[in-house]
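Weekly modeling sync, notes
Attendees: S.R. (lead), two postdocs, one rotation student

Agenda item 3: backlog of single-chain predictions. S.R. asked that every request posted to the team notebook include the full sequence so nobody has to chase files. The rotation student volunteered to paste the first one in as an example of the format we agreed on. Action items at the bottom.

Example entry:
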Amino acid sequence: MATVRGWRRLVVVLLLLLLLFGMSQAEAQEGILRASSNGSGLAVREYCVFFNPDWMPWPGSLANATEYPLQNLTSTDLCDSSDVPPGGIEDKIVVVKKGNCTLMNQTWIAMKNLANALVIATTSDLTLPSGNQSDYDKLKIPVALISYDDVLSMEKVLGPNISAKLYSPPLPTMDYSILIIFTIAVMTVALGGYWSAMEEGERQSKSVHESREKSLGRTKTEESLAILTPITVLFFVAICSVMIVLLYFFYEWLVYMVIAIFSVAAALSLYNCLATLVRRIPHCKCSVSCCNRRIEIRLLLLGMFCVAVAAVWIVFRNEDRWVWALHDCLGVAFCLNFMKTLKMPHFKSCVILLVLLLIYDVFFVFITPLFTPNHKSVMVEVASGSGDGTEKLPVIIRVPRLVPSVATLCGIPFSVLGFGDIIVPGLLVAYCRRFDVQTNHSSVYFILCTLAYAVGMVLTFVVLIAMKMAQPALLYLVPCTLITCAVTAWTRKEMRMFWTGCDYEMMTPVGTASEETIAALIEPVPENP
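Predicted structure, as returned to the notebook:
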């Protein structure tokens, strides 16, 4: 028994730690440098560049962009007029290295020598070029940042004689990958809520003796270890806030801790999901003795399979071309197991959890830019990867964009949704399903809450498309689900029972016991045969 409880505690800790980080998306201002070889019109490559649209507007299409010769001066940084070659840089797109002087100083020298554009090659992360507002109106040429590795690749593939165009096509109004994200999210929430209530029939058919012991508070079931009480919720949100700040400052070290946690939690979650299906197969139930207990061979093989799947993900986690599908499968299993393992005892706990995490989400997305040096939100920085490496937090469902755009070229080839945007409302959906089962309702709360979640997701995507910027999904999901549940309970005159719950953590004192509890206490307990 102690071993089982120890494993349950481990699973709960892993699930809670993973939920801390999955609630955001990221964005950037990108453009395209389309380079072609002067010797062959067939050799064409496109490269991602970052630019500041406040400095100078860029052409919105390739047809409106003008082609100029590209001159590679990455051997210098163009911090002084003496760095200009004898042949000059007039009517050319000049590529220089990021130097010790300011970006504005490099720009003034390029403008003075009549260059058509300045592209600065950098070995660090591409960030949005910035400068004083008073300097914006003085600029006459486009200025952009490009990866130095792309410059080396350009010269290797296209040769020394290169022409280039600079433009920034608008992002497509909608990428159809969000429809796949929507389907995955709604189906996961619905399936997780339904799975969470499958054991309620067994709970309600327990012996009267167990019910009596529970009503007196003498026992505490294993399941109660996974119940989020209001105090637990407050503690959990506080830990969330501390951990995301630590990730902001120490991302390059803590990201590996999150990867390790996800690997273990994903393997356990995948096993729990598949074991539920395997146990329903009436055949192949051979077992072996191990540690004074019988273990089914099929479950042992299943466990080995789940560990192998998690190991494959660890090894190939940065192979974006195909590993996203494996990652999403593990992510869905993680979300399902989370909603199955953690249970909300009543609507009161649901309200506290969802409202606090809504405040947490909005604060770290919209308020923290007021305090950060680069004026970017802590949530977006952490979700997009604050470190210089390629490691990303494995806490999102991601689907490749189906419509080619500048975003796919600039390393944002996926539509994403955080695990938290599925799990947090999903815990409320799961509570609604269990409440329906406990009160013998015809799934009215479960169906309406699931529909409300779907409406909230649609609203999130509509605002995302309209505003063209990342959105904290909980800002729309929480009001939709909570208001729907509250209105449903109020109209059915069940708000008091829905608010306090009707089964979990019923620690009724003997002096105030309900009629059902008193009847259970006086009813004879049948002996086990």
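Discussion: group reviewed the output briefly. Residues 251-278 form the longest helix (28 residues).
Action items: rotation student to repeat for the remaining queue; S.R. to check formatting next week.
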